């Protein structure tokens, strides 16, 4: 087994999470490889630090005070019930249809669709001319 693979598995070996045959193989490798021995020693030291954290008496426990202050803070926002569910959806729908009908009537009255159709027909005519021109040049 290569040292990279052994070093990759040393964390699980130190925690005792490997199967017995893998643990035995790593243990045999650790007897002959000084680089992996150093890596294993460092992992054991780190494991000891994580398992027994130092309690420093210079820092008071402020968790309860901070949590009380957080509970006393006002909420960031409040939901408005009217935004979640429309009150008069039928009246709202009728108003929207009425507005759309008025808008369509005004557009017809001022001839917007006539100007729009003439613009579309001009664009179509230009496109048709350019396509015909391309086909005529290709036949030469």
UniProtKB/TrEMBL annotation:
UniProt lists the family membership as follows: Belongs to the zinc-associated anti-sigma factor (ZAS) superfamily. Anti-sigma-W factor family.
Q: Which InterPro entries match?
A: Anti_sigma_zinc_sf, Znf_put
Q: Which domain of life is it from?
A: Bacteria
Q: Does Flavoprotein appear among the keywords?
A: no
Decide whether keyword ATP-binding is in the record: no
Q: Where is the Putative zinc-finger domain?
A: 3-37
Q: Which residues cross the membrane?
A: 93-112
Q: What is this protein called?
A: Anti-sigma-W factor RsiW
UniProt KW keywords: Membrane, Transmembrane, Transmembrane helix
Q: Record's Pfam families?
A: zf-HC2 (PF13490)
């Amino acid at each position: 087994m290569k040292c990279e693979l052994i070093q990759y598995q040393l964390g699980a070996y130190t925690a005792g999470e490997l199967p017995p045959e893998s643990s035995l193989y790593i243990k045999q490798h650790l007897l002959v490889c000084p680089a992996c021995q150093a890596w294993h020693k460092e992992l054991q030291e780190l494991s000891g630090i994580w398992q027994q954290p130092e309690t420093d008496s210079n820092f008071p426990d402020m968790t309860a005070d901070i949590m009380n202050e957080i509970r006393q803070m006002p909420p960031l926002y409040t939901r408005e019930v009217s935004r979640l569910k429309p009150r008069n959806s039928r009246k709202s729908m009728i108003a929207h249809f009425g507005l759309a009908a008025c808008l369509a009537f005004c557009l017809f009255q001022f001839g917007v669709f006539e100007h729009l159709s003439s613009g579309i027909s001009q664009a179509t005519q230009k496109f048709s001319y350019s396509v015909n021109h391309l086909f005529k040049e290709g036949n030469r």
